[in-house]
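ERR on first pass: missing label on line 2. Operator R.T. fixed the label and resubmitted. Corrected input:
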Amino acid sequence: MWALKLKGVPFEYIEEDLFTNKSELLLKSNPVYKKIPVLIHNGKPISESTVILEYIEETWPENPLLPVDPHERAIARFWIKFMEDKIPIMFAFFLSNPGEKQDKAKKDCLEVLRTIEEHGLKEDKKFFGGTNIGLTDLVFGLLAYQWELMEEIVGVKLMEVHSFPRLHTWAENFKSVSVIKENLPDRDRLFARLKGRKEVLVGSSKSH
Amino acid sequence: MADEVVLLDFWPSFFGMRARIALAEKGIYYQYRDEDLQDKSPLLLQMNPVNKKIPVLVHNGKPICESLIIVQYIDETWKGKSPLLPSNPLQQAQARFWADYVDKKIFPSLRDTWSTTGEQQEAARKEFIEALKVLEGELGEKPYFGGDSFGFLDVSLVPFYSWFYAVEKCGNFSTEAESPKIIAWAKRCMERESVAKSLPDSEKVYNYVLENKKKMGLE
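pass 2 clean. output:
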């Protein structure tokens, strides 16, 4: 969604009820996985978030979100894939309750954050790709705003500013981009929604 | 200045094969280095510090990691010959979607078919066969997944063909019986020099699998 807004592409947003009632349009558009997100452009569906991002980039080349240099592009894609692969780890932490599983989830998450801090972000660059926001930043967007709330719900802070200065600086840069700033959901509402999601999926705080 | 291209690889890796095929399609001269995965070279660890995995393409000293990203890089850098990704964004998206499907469905089920036993193996075999059938549907009557020309998705999937024989013996089934069109397509791909040169002999792969099974204590 951010990608489309950054490119100034008008679009219609359809919210899906994922748990009880997937719409026919969704099932028809993504018969292989039956998942969101799905982008439908002039009636043609495209699924899988990174495939969608690349499609948006190719179709609307104005306000480019990927570097021009092939090697820089390869690096951008590498980090996009990295974050996609690690999302289950981040969510495992979010859904965890105190106990052995949570200790492991904490360790795994910290390792992910450390890798990003050490290898993904460079001192002199504002964003993952350099001076401008790009696709990679969008994929890491979870860490800029929502993550803090998720940590609060779990009751464990992992992304401390003194341990992850580059990540914190990046998060501030990310949130100050006008398109992002204008589209950040209300903090309290997001907090309530996330808390509700965890309760539905896991039940309230019980030791596992 | 001449281009210096090095591929850090491991001979039975389907991911490595993808890079080999792409380089061959483009006629690029490169240095091939087989890695000992139990004893990774300092170059590999330096070039891929995050995942420490092969394949890694090193082009004039700069590393590119992750097989599908490497194939895209090769396609974008050496544009003159054999374009692999379609120019139309929608077709590109479809190629990427299905290549991702191959990674999500074919790779794990193929791996589990040879490396597990009992119920887990049975489930893996079923998933593998089902995934092949889905891909068969996607191929339809086309000579290649890319249409008339060999493309990105063909490169992404054909390496697994070198493992079919091994997996059939372990799982006790026939890919030809289950998905004849995929086999026909694979044989067509094997007629291309780039593919024939890049895939190891099936018997060699089978022996490698047997060795690993022994090490894992599975028969």
